[in-house]
Amino acid sequence: MGRSSADAQPSKQVLIGSPGTSAYSEVGLFPRGTEASIDLMYKNTLSPALTIQTMADAHLPNSHPDVTPDWQPYDFPRTSLLEGIKVQLIEGSEGQRYAGSVPQVWGAVAGRRLAAHGGFCATTLMTTARQYIRDKYEHLAQVEPLNMFVEYLAPLPVGPYQVALETLHLGKRGSTIQARLISNEEEKDHTCTVGIIRFGILKDEGHTENIHPPVGPLPDRVNECMRWTDALYFFFNPPTGSVRTYVPNDKGTPFWSEKYGGQNSRYQWDKLDNGEKFQLEHITMLADLVPAIPANYAEEGLMVGARFRIPTTAIHIMFHSEVKDEEWLLTKSTMNRLHAGRFDMNIQIINDAGEIVASCVHLCSVIPQGKSGQITGKL
User: Fold this and answer.
1) 3-class secondary-structure state, position 117
2) What CATH fold (topology level) applies to the domain 79-201?
3) What is the C-alpha separation between 171 and 137, in angstroms, rounded?
4) pTM here?
5) Spatial CA neighbour of 123 closest among 242, 359, 285
6) CA distance 254 to 276
7) Is the pLDDT of residue 12 over 70?
8) The predicted structure's pLDDT at residue 77
9) What SS3 state is found at 294?
């Protein structure tokens, strides 16, 4: 499934429609005055924003001109996830609160403002809860996350925040912690995201028989996949640029594969764009980076975001095994149904050995863009 190939094939380029940029300028993501040039990028067939290329460029970052010709530089540092989620204990909080700050590169457009990426929020809750349990209960051995449920209540603004923690259960075999992300913008505590995280021993100790049902055929990165990039998508949703993505190159590319899963599915291989290796901390972020599968059914593909907001409303994730220094991970995602403005995605995260390292149920809403009450068209 896995090694890079030196045999480059001719690149394919696919033009997709422009979502318009005025809304993104208003929240400060596009510099003022760049809207026309970015829109032109979509009208000029010689300079498409979405490019599909072969594995020969796997060593190149997304920003490289041979990978994303129309890459638009950010006006802020590309802080890594592991650096961005760092927090500090708040003095006088009796060990119950930590403070951190959402880097701008981990924000995305949420209505008319920048808000923290859902995967960043969930990862912050998990890692802060783990730090809390290690700080507060030093005698415990079971301090690795086993499963987590996260509910998104409101967008968390980019910038400073607090994490409030509470022990719900403490036991020899496992402990459960509640963690809340609180915005610093209001004097009164305003919970934006809440998570329930169960901790235990993630490493297999051989007490039970392991069963690994086959995950089915997986696309070969070298022979069946091509790189997918999208300059505008990276620009208005910077977290998406944190990984290099390869997708099956058959019918439906880049949004879905006729051979792998069909139109209600998405298979994609990812590696970190900054050269780091995947750790357990990256798993929830990776699950929330899967492009919304309803885009597979939209004529304009991912640019359906011009007509609809598609926020994550909840994530339930189970960690099956340790993740240490993985160069490549595959997300295998399937949507069961879109109905009444809500849809689900079942996501399996699989390593190079074909083992499921985590599984996730990802819930989202579909909200028409435009003024209050104005419907802009059906998906």
Assistant:
1) coil
2) Porin (2.40.160)
3) 11
4) 0.84
5) 285
6) 25
7) no
8) 96
9) helix
Residue 58, pLDDT above cutoff 90 = yes
Q: How far apart are CA 65 and CA 41, in angstroms?
A: 15
Structure tokens at 45: 């067939």
Residue 172 backbone zone (phi > 0: left; psi -120 to 50: alpha; other: beta)? alpha
Work out the number of other CB atoms within 10 angstroms of the CB of residue 238. Answer: 23
Q: Would you place residue 284 in the very low, low, confident or very high pLDDT band (cuts 50, 70, 90)?
A: very high
Sign of the dihedral defined by the CA atoms of residues 126, 127, 128, 129, in that order: positive
Q: How many Å apart are CA 80 and CA 17, to the nearest integer?
A: 30
113 or 81: which leads in pLDDT:
81
3-state secondary structure of 8: coil
Residues making up the chain, counted from first to last: 379
Alpha carbon distance 309, 365 (integer Å): 8
pLDDT at residue 379, as a whole number: 53
How far is the CA of 89 from the CAs of 99, 140, 199, 349, in angstroms? 6, 19, 20, 32
Residue that the structure tokens 């290796």 belong to = 277
Cα separation, 79 vs 352, in Å, equals: 26
Which is nearest to 115 in space by CA: 273, 361, 311? 311
Cis? peptide before 155, omega within 30° of 0: no
Cβ atoms 290, 268 nearer than 8 A: yes
Residue with tokens 């829109």: 39
Q: CB-based contacts of 333: which residues, under 8 Å, 6+ apart?
A: 265, 266, 267, 290, 293, 345, 346, 347, 348, 362
Q: Nearest CA to 95 among 132, 57, 51?
A: 132
pLDDT tens-digit readout, 124-183: 999 999 999 999 998 888 889 999 999 999 999 999 999 999 999 999 889 999 999 999
Cis, bond preceding 214 (omega within 30 deg of 0): no
- In tens, the pLDDT along 120-133 reads 999 999 999 999 99
Distance of alpha carbon 287 from alpha carbon 132, whole angstroms: 24
**Contact in structure between 152 and 314 (CB atoms under 8 Å):** yes
